[in-house]
Amino acid sequence: MGYASLEPHLPSSHAPLLPPGTFLSISDTQASDGNFLLHHFISNYLKADQNVVLVGLAGILVHYTMVGRKLGVNLATARTKGNFQFVDGLTQLTDYAAPNKEYLAKPAEPKPSSTTTTTTATPSPTTTTTTTTTTVGARIARPAAAAAATPPAPPKVLSYGPKLVDLYRALEEIIQDTASKTTRPFQKQLVLILDDLSVLLNCGWPCRDVLALVRYLKLLVAKFNGTLITLVHADGLLAEEVSQDGLVKGVFYEADYIIDVRGLDSGGSRDVHGQLSLLHGPGYLLRQRAGQVKENEWPALTLHYKILDNNVEVFAKGYSSGVL
Amino acid sequence: MSSFKKRVPSAQATLPAGCRLSAYNGQVLISTGVPSLDDILGGGLPLGTILLIQEDRQTSYGQLLLKYFLRQGIVAGDKCLVVSGDESPEAIVRSLMGIAGEESLESQVQSGVDNRDDEDEARRERRKKAAAAGGTEDEDSEQDRLTIAWRYSGLKKFESGVGARPPAISSRVNKAGSTTEPALTPSQIPFCEQFDLTTRISAKALESADTTLVDSGELQKAVQTGDSDLEDDSDDDFSTSGSASAVGKNQPDLYRNVLDKIRETLIQGGFSTTLLKDPSAPPPAPGAAGLAERHICRIGINSIASPSWRSKTPHDLYKFLHALRGLLRFSFGAAVITIPAHLYGTIDQRHATDGSTTSPYIHRLEQLCDASVRIESFAGAQTNVSSAASAYHGLFHVHKVPVLNALIPSSTKLSVLLDGAAKGSGGPGQSGSGGSSKGVNNLGFKVRRKRFAIETFHLPPEGGVGQRRTSAEPSSGSSSPLSERKKSSSTKSSNPGPATGSFKKADSSEEGSVQSRARSLGGSSFNKPSGQVDVHSVPGASGMARKMMGLPPKGIQGAVASGCSTGGSEAGHKHNHGGAGSGANSSLLDF
């Protein structure tokens, strides 16, 4: 289970998961990182044996694995089981990083121009390194001995495309792939987590395109009985920038649930690291009007939190351990 | 709570030279060369991360930190990649500082003398105090003993900085005595060497240093003239000529070229764990190259995004940082980047002295880096902050500390300087919040003659130690009016014995007399208009005065009463101003 004290404050209808077909947008500031909430949902979904697709635009797999271990989730075994897909959006996302591809160890070229058949014929004994390769269609002749101790396949990589549509296509493929692996496709829920939307904006894609991507992903995920979770930086300092402000507002507009993480207005404290504002997005209000949500399914409120080594305490305002 | 863990030497042996494991999350750390900065970052800079240093105006302390980082790399035998545009990278490397104790050993025999600035300073201070008290040298030891507020003498001394481990002079002597040439084994290389700003790096060290210099100005020229020289740089032995590199050549820009250089260095040196020199060759087995033989690639970029770095869009730098992070996360490397952030603020922001000086542009850069600090030097400040805190050269703001493989930054657990950090990142508050200190100590930095140090920022005792002493001096000297008052006060006490009575009683009467004396003296000698800050108003005050306020000194060595009111007009003040009692060299500590 993720953070036990946060659980009662999340939408209750499908607890501990989010209702399928919804979109949770998390916003944070630099002083109070909202990344810890992602870990909550990752561990919750994996514990419930659901599918998780995590797109690491800012974090790497090791980070999530290490934190997952602290929260009692083994991401490595989840990956071998196929429950958990990590998509590397860090190493090859931009055109600057695109040449990285050329230096990756590739026993088999995924490119159609497979002039290197001679190299694949020679059995290389060291294909079990945990390097990041795009093994979408890679047929690797593994030695039998190595196959016994096969680590989970290296994460898929989002490689550079001039348009965000390319990213969407890649994600679509991954999600379909993940969903098709499960025996009963529509019994399982799926969550797609983008760990930092602001990266896309920073890497030069226009705000409009990023918002379109979010909208597309939301619809795509809903098809697979899934939930979309994104994280976006919403520092007050950046509100002056049109594109940044537009992104935050646009993402909020798409959202069903909003969790806004920020520091305390009154400054820092040893016992309170910041506050979580649980807000209703327009999507929630629409569904409420349509009678799809129960009354008081998710009361909007503001809570305080404190991050510990392997847990996060969430409590009502003024109820921190320093006060009581 | 004691978060200090003794490192096990067995774990140390498997690490590359000059590295250590974080006591909190097992991250491999390298030193920035400055112990106090290492402390702030949680023990050191984790491998695979980027530290952004926002430079100061009009001074070059930011570059000094970068030099420390590079110099430490040379000590550890690391690869150093220096990128600079405004100043030639050669000049930066040549002007690196020397190792403390090395020069003196070679020139004159000064074995065993630890001439650190701290001790110098402390000694000088002590001597000054002793002179002021009219005592002789042997009172030095007496000095530290408290007789009146003796209960406080048990408290630990007030430390504002992080003590570096004492330099292993003896081992260095041995080394100098022998050939001096043989490289130390990895375990012998210190995590953080002690450097001496008064000396320059020795030619021998420069020769042996493994550096790659990239002059971004030259690159810029090459880019602008569309020189095909670049194609030589990108490694052509793959003949891939893929779409990506073709695109790169169609639209040359500086950041891309710098990144290509960095990538090339990382790959050629074998620092990357995922990218290989020759992808077609079978990659080496993971355990083949022992960690101990590995070295670290230190990337230092000086004044990135200064006007000499031209770019078409601001996104170039964002993309650069994102790609660099992606590269470094899978490499044995770390980067320190300095940026003239003050060029990017709006006018009012630039001159603000609270934490909100970060412009949106810089703020977004911080999102893409793992750690971010800002240096604000008093020399470049518009306000005269410096008059209040002459002991420091500027303020040191910590905006972001690395959070890797854990929920909370390791510096929250380990850092001494950031003690009390709620979140390790103090960060500029939201536009509304005034205080920049999120439960974090305010930090200032000093550049002593020999070293750079970051310390918790606190105001000096009002008027300084010397003045306090001299003002208290006449009270003990000319005792004719005082003795009368002393008698009058002692008559009030229940036992009006002779002056040579039992000690306790003498003490009590003494105390009363000190109080009254101080009160009376306050009108004359304490009322000097010397522009001191009224410390009493600080805790409640907001804005700058609050910023200037560090921790109140818990126990200052020697006898210093921190001044509490500037004027003696506040006669009803309860605190005892420091007065030298007869024979007692220490005055009361004041909280």
Automatic annotation (TrEMBL), chain A:
Domain of life: Eukaryota
Pfam families: ELP6
InterPro entries found in the cross-reference section: ELP6 (IPR018627), P-loop_NTPase (IPR027417)
Biased segments, Low complexity type: 112-135
Gene3D superfamilies the UniProt entry points to: P-loop containing nucleotide triphosphate hydrolases
UniProt record, GO biological process: tRNA wobble uridine modification
Region listing for Disordered, in residue ranges: 105-135
Coiled-coil segments on the chain, per record: none
Pathway membership: tRNA modification; 5-methoxycarbonylmethyl-2-thiouridine-tRNA biosynthesis
GO cellular component, one term: elongator holoenzyme complex
Similarity section: Belongs to the ELP6 family.
Protein name in the entry: Elongator subunit elp6
Gene: ELP6
TrEMBL record, chain B:
Pathway of action: tRNA modification; 5-methoxycarbonylmethyl-2-thiouridine-tRNA biosynthesis
UniProt GO BP: tRNA wobble uridine modification
Sequence ranges of Gly residues compositional bias: 423-437
GO cellular component: cytoplasm; elongator holoenzyme complex; transcription elongation factor complex
Pfam families assigned to the protein according to its UniProt record, in alphabetical order: PAXNEB
Keyword Cytoplasm in annotation: yes
Region spans: Disordered: 104-143, 161-185, 217-246, 422-442, 456-591
Chief subcellular location: cytoplasm
Bias type Acidic residues, positions: 228-238
Localization terms from the record: Cytoplasm; Nucleus
Stretches with biased composition (Polar residues): 171-185, 511-530
Low complexity compositional bias, start-end: 472-482
Sorted UniProt keywords: Cytoplasm, Nucleus, tRNA processing
Family under the similarity heading: Belongs to the ELP4 family.
Protein name (Swiss-Prot/TrEMBL): Elongator complex protein 4
Annotated organism of origin: Mortierella hygrophila
